[in-house]
What we know:
Layout: E1 10-15, E2 18-24, E3 41-43, E4 45-46, E5 52-53, E6 66-72, E7 78-83, E8 86-91, E9 94-95, E10 104-107, E11 113-116, E12 128-137, E13 139-142, E14 147-151, E15 162-163, E16 173-175, E17 184-189, H1 191-199, E18 207-211, E19 219-223, E20 235-240, E21 245-248, E22 254-260, E23 263-270, E24 273-281, E25 287-289, E26 295-297, E27 303-305, E28 313-316, E29 320-321, E30 328-331, E31 338-341, E32 352-357, E33 364-367, E34 379-382, E35 388-393, E36 398-403
Amino acid sequence: MEPRGRSNAATTAKIGGFMVRTVDSRRIAGDSEKTISGVQIRLSLPDRRQRYHHSLFAMKAPAIRHLLVATFLSTTASAVTLPASEDSSSSKGNLTAAGHKATTLPVSASRRAFVFFDTSQLPANASIRYARLRVYVPKLSAAGNGLQVHQVTGAWSESAVSAEPAFNPAPLGTIPANQLPAKGFASVDVTNAVKAWIATPSSNEGLSIAAVPAPSTANLTLGSKEGSSTGYPAELEVELDAAKVVIQGNGGSTYQLVPSGNNLVLQHLSGLSTIPMFSIDGTTNAVRVGSAGSFISRGDNSVGIDGAFSFEAANFTSNFNANDSTCVFFGNTNSNNVTITLPSATGRSGRVYFIKKTSANNTLTIATTGGNTIDGAASVVLAANNACRVVMSNGTNWFVISAL
């Protein structure tokens, strides 16, 4: 049994602007061939719809038993093509010993095809722009109602003789009958499945391809990785969003930095969903912080708050030193006089403290340190119940901004 995730049919690598893949050298039906410098090559180019045009040219040499396939890549994103590393077909609900050795994968009312792709070759935490299953149809007896693709949920192996693996009954997508050409390619979007595999690698059990039911009248074959003499094996075409940067936190949280319109957004990834945490507007230079963008630092040097505003507050019943992490202080003088001492005003220009006396008994004294003053005095005494002072540093001393 060949280990899952490895293929004896193809090896893929990126070289410059090309995706180069070695595959079995047996001649593929329909390809024209030439010999140039003793090397056998087939080149395929995508058109605007990413449909491939084969039979451009081939170079053949008896001494070389591999075929190099080069595919131009998009310059706006990183494209990866994964060949099927396992494939098989079932007959009347069972995987057969002959199924994984066949040169084609039959699909009909009583037969399904199964394909597996080794997505561990994709970058960890890859950001998937799209993913598409691409199959070749060597023989089309009847298109019927088309094909549908399901995400397989049960374990299987191409070499095992067993019942069909379980699969999600809701199809990932369908290939309409009019898009099933004989001796041609067809494709279907499987982006959600690949995203799920990236999020949870152990969930990757491949894909199932079946005839659309009610009724299941399609009758055709698909290319197998063992059948390069009759067609092409299934491929998974994945385009990674190169503009996104994925950051993995030490605690397991994952974040994504991605352009959105004219903004740059930092998102928190939660399963397959994203929660925006931080964004920068490229036009106004405004910065929004929070999942709802509640705090806004505008490009005109102003700040906006969309929602409630809160301060860090502290309560004290005995002598207390004001600190740099709290700006509101409630002093309870019910049992005794208390003093709150301000830090040095030096180096704290613009720092604001709100200090309130919450009891009618005794006094609350606001004191300074290091020779600083409050409006020229060493301290301020609050005697009345609910008396309040707002003080601010100018970088040298403290000043009362508001007195209640």
